Amino acid sequence: MSRRSFVRSLLETSKVIRFLHRSLNQSFLKLRYLHRHRQKKRNKIPIAKASPAANPSNEAARLEALQRYEILDTPPEDAFDDLTALASFICGTPIALVSLIDSNRQWFKSKVGLEATETPRELAFCAHAILSPSEPFIVPNALDDERFATNPLVVSDPDIRFYAGVPLVTADNYPLGTLCVIDRIPRRLNREQIDALRALGRQVITQMDLRIKLEKEKELNELKSRFVSMTSHEFRTPLTTIMGSADLLEYYSDKWSKEKKQSHLQRIQNAVQHMTLLLDDVLLIGKAEAGKLKFNPSPLDLKQFCLDLIEELQPNVSNHHSLTFVNHTQDIKANLDQKLLRHILSNLLSNAIKYSPDGGTVNFELFCQEGWLIFQIQDFGIGIPEKDLPHLFESFYRANNVGDIPGTGLGLAIVKRFVDFQDGKIAVESEVGVGTRFTVQIPFHPVANYSS
C-alpha cells in the first residue's frame, strides 16, 4: 500500500471514529434526559389521599330508604349481572358496577372486571355522583380532577382514569347509589352511550323495586298459608262443639234437666266467644298492618294498673299456678294508652301461664329507668327453641314444641306491633325446658311533665 493510500485510510477511519463518538455521546445524552424525565415523573406521583364527598342533605332518610330494600350483602343475581355486563359492552369499558352507598362503604350488588365487593365510602366516586341525582356524573381523566387525582383507587390498583355513573334514584327521590362504568385510560362517552347508561340505570332501580314486590308476595303467600292452617284448626274445635251441643239440645232438650241444658248452652257460648276472640285478633293485626291504630294516652297509676290486671287474670290461674307481682318503682303516674298496654301485658302473662307446668310460678316485675318503663314477665315453662326465636313475632307463627296447647300464633305478633307503635322495645330470652323471659320497654312521660 502506498503512503498516500495509507494516510487516506487513516483519515477515513478517523472520521468514522469521530462519527461514532458523536453518536454515542448523543445517545448517552438522550438516555440521561429520559432518565431525568422519568425520575421527575416519579417524584411527581401524588401521595395517595382521599377527598371524601360531602353527605347529601337528606342522608338519614336516604339510608333508611336503602335499608328498606334489604339488598345489602345479598348474593349476586342474574338480573343485575346482565345489566352491568350490558353497560360494560355498550360503553366499551373493562369495569362496570352496581354500587350502593351505605353509611361508611360502597357495596357492589353486581360487578364486571373487579374482584372487590366493597370499598370505603371515602374513596367512592359514586359518593360524589349521588350529590347530583338528576345528572350523570362523568370524570374523563381522574388525574386532571383535583377531587380524585390523589385517590388511592386512582394512583394504585385498579388505576381508575375514567368514570361515568348514573344515580339510582327511588320513586321518592332518594339516590341509593349508581350504575357506573370505569376505565384505566382517559376517555369520553358519546351521547348515545350516556343515554343507554341512563336507561340501564332505570332498569336497575326497577329490578330493586321488583325484589321488594316479590318478597312481599312471598310473605303474603306464607301468611295466607298459615292463616288457612290456623283457622281450619282453631275453628274446627269450637264449631264441632257448637254442632254437637246443638244436636243434643234439639233431640233431648225435652228429656234433660234445666241444669244439663244450661251446661250445653254454656259450651256453645264459650265456643262462640273463642271464635269471636280469634276474629278480633285477626282484625287487630289487620288494623296494625294498615297503620290504623290510634294512640290515646291518659294518666295511669302503674302499680294499681298492674295489680288490677293480675286480679283480672286470676280466673285463668288454676290452683296449680302462682302469679306474683313486684313493683321496683316509686308510685308514679304516667301518660300511657291503657288499652294498648293492657293488651300487651295480658297477652304475655296469659302465655306465661299457659306454657307453664302445674305448680309453675310466673313472675311479673315493673321497673322505671331513665325515661323507660320496663315490664318483665318470667315463666319456668317449656321454653322456646332457639331456631324459633327469630320468627316468634311473625303472624300465625307458633314454636315447634307447643304440641296440643291451643293458640293462634297471632298474640305475639299483635304485642310486637303494639310495642312498636309506642316507640317501645321488646326482647325475649328463652331456653327449652327452663323457661322464658319477655322484657318490654316503653318510653313514658310522668303526668307532671306531660303537656299534650
Automatic annotation (TrEMBL):
It catalyses: ATP + protein L-histidine = ADP + protein N-phospho-L-histidine. Residues 230-446 form the Histidine kinase domain. Keywords: Kinase, Phosphoprotein, Transferase, Two-component regulatory system. The keyword Cell inner membrane does not apply. Gene3D superfamilies: 1.10.287.130, 3.30.450.40, Histidine kinase-like ATPase, C-terminal domain. The keyword Transferase applies. It is an enzyme of class 2 (transferase). InterPro entries: GAF (IPR003018), GAF-like_dom_sf (IPR029016), HATPase_C_sf (IPR036890), HATPase_dom (IPR003594), His_kinase_dom (IPR005467), HisK_dim/P_dom (IPR003661), HisK_dim/P_sf (IPR036097), Sensor_HK_Regulatory (IPR050736). This is histidine kinase. It comes from Symplocastrum torsivum CPER-KK1.
